[in-house]
Amino acid sequence: MVLKRIGWLMALALGAGLASQAATFKLISGGELSGDYVSADRNAIVYKKADGTFDRVGWTNLHQDTIKELAKQPLSRKLAQEYLDIEEEQAPEKRKPPEIKFKEPPRLDRPDPKSGWSVIFQSSVGATLFALLYLANLYAAYEIALFRNYHPALVCGLAAVAPLLAPIIFLCLPTYIKKVEEVPEVVSENAPTLELPVEAAAEAVEAVPAGPASPYPPPQIYQRGQFTFNRRFFETKLAGFLRVVPAETEKDLVIDVSSARGAHTAQRIVRVQPAEIVFAVYKGGASAEVGIPYTEIKEVRVRHKDMPV
Description:
By secondary structure, this protein is of the alpha+beta class. The protein has helices spanning 2-19, 64-71, 77-81, 124-148, 152-161, 165-172, 198-207, 231-237, and strands at 21-26, 32-40, 44-48, 54-58, 220-223, 253-259, 262-272, 276-283, 286-293, 297-304. The model is unreliable at 6-20, 191-196 and 200-208 (pLDDT under 50).
């Protein structure tokens, strides 16, 4: 047991003798430190001065020559290698950074400023926008024709020839109102004239039977041009038809609506909206809601439901 302890002490003494080596430590600042190297850690090395005291010096303060010497010792080799500067001669071939080649992105050719309006049709985007604007011009002409009571074919035809200009002109014109001209009675000069005495003429007038009086009240007719069809018109003129259960004055009446979408006969008004009106229409025993824009309504007639149209 004693021999074993003596062996351990001799091994430790031999290790301490190998570890403690007198050396000169060069500093980056140009100075030097003399002493025996004792140990090292990741931050500094420990050395023993000539007066027997111990001191520390950081790895970052040591010169590269000193670090190279410490890298040769087995106790500080791994720690010293972390602070060694790789020389250009010993460094592996540096990888050259990849050369960035700028690739010009594809760009549309700029139109020739001297080509005029034809440049619109040189790209699909321009041609599509032109087609959409042209169709919008025709649709605006159709709506203006209904609003001003002109024939849609006339207004749309002129809008096709003169886009934008024709719809503006018809929009500025007053609403067209069809006038019914009285045809004068033409009496032929060679037609025989029948002269009756006054008493005979009176008897003839009395002999003509009077036609039977209609049992139904006369219809109320509202035509475009004489009335403006909008929300206020139906809320004031036909307010009785807005009720779910009609009053006594409207229960036997119906509404005939003539529009660009056809003719409809409605029993009541479902709802009045800012741009259109919705009627309740009964066909074949079934009810349906039909919405008609105000601009397409040509005539509104209120009559008795049994009165022939």
